[in-house]
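Annex B. Sample input.
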Amino acid sequence: MSNDLKLYHSAASPNARRVRIFLAEKGIAIPLAPVDLATGQQRSDAFSAINPRRVVPTLVLADGTAIGEVPAI
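Annex B, continued. Sample output.
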C-alpha cells in the first residue's frame, strides 16, 4: 500500500519532520516530493492543484485524496 502514497514535504517544516520521523519509526517507506518553502513553491498553481490549502506536509493517496493535517497523516 505504501507504494500508492506520496508525501510532499520540506526539510524546513517541523510538521513534515514529524511525519517523516513517524514513517521511519514504523518502517514505512514512501516516495517523497520536496517542496521549496523558501521560494514559495507551496503557493504555486501546480501545488495548489495537489492541495488547495497549500500546506506542507501533504500526503497524497492512490485515489488522489490529499491529506494536509499532520494528526490525520
